[in-house]
Amino acid sequence: MKCPLTERGCGGCIELSAPYGEHLRRKQAAVRKLFPDALPIVGMENPCHYRGKVLSTFANGRSGLYSGIYAAGSHRVLSVRDCILHDRRADEIVGISREILAASGREVLLTLVTPSAELPDAKALTAQIVRKCPDVRSVVQNINPRKTSAVLGFKEIVLYGPGYIDDVLMGMKFRISSRSFYQVNSRQTEKLYGKALALAELTGREEVLDAYCGVGTIGILAAKHAAHVTGVEFNADAVKNAAVNARLNGLENIDFLRGDAGRVLAEKQLSADTLFVDPPRSGCERPFLEALCAAMPQKIVYISCCPETQARDIKLLSSRGYRLESVQPVDMFPWTAHVETVGMLSLTKRQT
């Protein structure tokens, strides 16, 4: 497989010249350098066009308005009309939006992200997009005046529809807004979370804690198999979304707390039989790990998007009486360098 964007500095995909099986073997080898007994990696049946969330940057060029993605390590926009990772319908909608915007003579950053609240003819622009793309349920203007690498700002204006979409994952319904964290590869997400739940071996009697819970995805999936689930998340908007998602699924055995996971765990003296944790790429913060060790859940299911920081954290947990039982790699992002891992640890001895 060959992509012309690679030669132009895209940097999004790697090893496209090798078969997908070889790509998986290299990821497996990288994980086993950190976890020698890691299980065989879970790949995709069709490792293309899997990204359900697509951000496309708009820019003016010599021939007019074009859209695409940033070249690696820069703010130079590469024109993209059909990416092998993007959902095809998403790229089609971007293309239609590009044509409408070019005709209107405005420069914007789509999703729609604008540097200020000013967006002339916003209603007419939105109406054209919806008319040509009837499967677009909602259009939101996100305002980001910051001159940083952050794509999204904190203020939003709903231009059309309810301001969110709904998705079904493993039989459960989730409401997603533009600023919600939600895995972009839904097919592999079901495999990832399925492995996490299988490793937890919930019986319906457990008290479960879901740390760094985001919009409550893992905790809500676990609630079907547990006595009670408590989710902890620092982002206030995410906590609100998580509570809505619990109601959408008719769950009464799950609650969400807003705050720093380590502080909440220590100050509220939360106890759990099983703990799920899915931290950012930087891994778990040391105060959280200390509070976790003090709480002493019998099982820890650690989902990670960075095996290196996961290995660091597991080393600390292992020194505090936990034993790593298994590690399952999952290829969430084929043709990229990223791999997700699920580790399960059990408590073997109490701290003295």
The beta-strand count equals: 15
Order of helices and strands: HHEEEHEHEEEEHEHEHEHEHEHEE
Structural class: alpha/beta
The CA-CA distance between the termini, in Å, is 56 Å
Summed over residues and divided by their number, the pLDDT gives a mean of 86
Work out the radius of gyration. Answer: 22 Å
Strand numbers in spatial order across the main sheet: 11-10-9-12-13-15-14
Number of contiguous helices: 10
Largest sheet: 7 strands, mixed
**Helix fraction?**
25-40%
Coarse morphology: globular
Stretches with pLDDT under 50, minimum 5 residues: 105-110
How large is the share of residues in beta strands?
15-25%
Quick structural overview:
With 352 residues, the chain is α/β, with parallel strands linked by helices. It contains 10 helices and 15 strands. The strands form 4 sheets. A 7-stranded mixed β-sheet has the order 11-10-9-12-13-15-14, sandwiched between helices. It has a 3-stranded antiparallel β-sheet with strand order 1-2-3, covered by helices on one side. Strands 4-5-6 form a 3-stranded mixed β-sheet.
Describe this structure in words.
The chain is an alpha/beta fold and 352 residues long. 32% of the residues lie in helices and 23% in strands. β9, α6 (217-223) and β10 form a beta-alpha-beta unit. The longest helix is centred in the first third of the chain and has 17 residues, at 88-104. The radius of gyration is 22 Å and the shape is globular. The protein starts with a helix and ends in a 5-residue tail after the last strand. The relative contact order is 0.12. Residues 105-110 have low confidence and may be disordered.
